[in-house]
Amino acid sequence: MSDAAQPRPKLDLVVLDCPDALALGRFYAQVLGWDVEDGSDADFTTLAPTGGGLTTDSPDGRTSLGFQRIDDWVEPTWPGGSHPQQVHLDLWVPDIDAAEPAVVAAGARVHQHQPSKDGSFRVYLDPVGHPFCLISG
């Protein structure tokens, strides 16, 4: 049997740990222009691309974001530190300078460490400290 005949998994949901799933979900919904799905709460929140209508049994390649509350949440440290980032999101924008005011207004902080040599990305922290980047180019 060839590999082509084997069903391949589809990435459905990327889940970030946090202290309040609904609060962090609302932050990313504002930044991305996505919708908080019905039934979301402080323990688990799911976003759907606007007009995307995800279903749990057939994602059709429509990857989304989820957020789950963790009782003993510890903010990641980056770069390095005792609680380094485990994952981060790269969000593409046509112009980083033009996009920055909206993500900051939503609650992001510009990180003091900016490793990009050519300005093709800028590092931010979400409201609970997850690093994420706006990328362009």
From TrEMBL:
Highest taxon in the source lineage: Bacteria
Residue ranges constituting the VOC domain according to the UniProt record: 10-137
PROSITE patterns registered for this protein in UniProt: VOC
InterPro entries: Glyas_Bleomycin-R_OHBP_Dase, Glyoxalase_6, VOC_core
Pfam families: Glyoxalase_6 (PF18029)
Name listed for the protein in its UniProt record: VOC family protein
